Amino acid sequence: MSASLGAALRSVLLTADPGGKVMAARAVARDWRLGRLDFTFDVAMPDSPARPARPELLPPNRMPKRGRGGSERGRIALWHALAHIEFVAIDLAIDMAGRFGAQMGPGFVGDFLSVAADEAMHFAILQRHLRVLGSTYGDLPAHAGLWEAAEKTRHDVAARLAVVPMVLEARGLDVTPATITRVLDSGDVTGSRILQRILDDEIRHVRIGTTHFVAWCANKQKAPESHWKELVGRYFGGAIKPPFNDSARLAAGLSRDFYAAIA
Ligand SMILES: [Fe+2]
Ligand SMILES: [Fe+2]
């Protein structure tokens, strides 16, 4: 008999060590693809995933200013912040599959495990880049608030999809092109290639989230645009701020009907 999917996902969330989490996430995605895991959810997902002793997690208002991008310290701070986002993104994708998979079905699980495998790869290449710059993940403090959206939406898959892929990951589509330009201007060609690859993958992640959200709405006979606005208003504190990367958002299935009125 093969192992349960729920238990495998829970054990990824409970792995604190960054390298260990990367390997565990990729292994569960592969095992699922190869049919080695039973579609059973016999354990609960933890409220919060395990975190390594470092980085120290600070509330946003206590995070040191990143300073100008040109300095060596500023560059390391940028890559460290990006690595932290990807590290948390591994758990966000695994929790999506583990918490809502039973209700949403095997197709949903397969999609979010492919996202988790991407996020693990993103973290690993950012970590490698940090090391080339003489640093490593954990050297600097990191943003403590990235799990908040998951916590607020842990009872409702539609709210989770509305906020995590369709707001937070979509925000990455908006800001990454300017970061790529800045990184390229500083002469870091490898860094700009890494970010371009991440941007391409993130378009797919937003599309996966949007597709499942729209299907969920169709199933419940709700209009996706207005239901999305309602959920974002209830569960996402901040405003959805322009400038928008309209072409990337459109490629991800997020038409302006979703976010124009809310911006
Ligand atoms: Fe990512
Ligand atoms: Fe992503």
Automatic annotation (TrEMBL):
<dbReference type="InterPro" id="IPR009078">
    <property type="entry name" value="Ferritin-like_SF"/>
</dbReference>
<dbReference type="InterPro" id="IPR007402">
    <property type="entry name" value="DUF455"/>
</dbReference>
<protein>
    <recommendedName>
        <fullName>Rhamnosyltransferase</fullName>
    </recommendedName>
</protein>
<dbReference type="Pfam" id="PF04305">
    <property type="entry name" value="DUF455"/>
</dbReference>
<feature type="region of interest" description="Disordered">
    <location>
        <begin position="50"/>
        <end position="70"/>
    </location>
</feature>
<dbReference type="InterPro" id="IPR011197">
    <property type="entry name" value="UCP012318"/>
</dbReference>
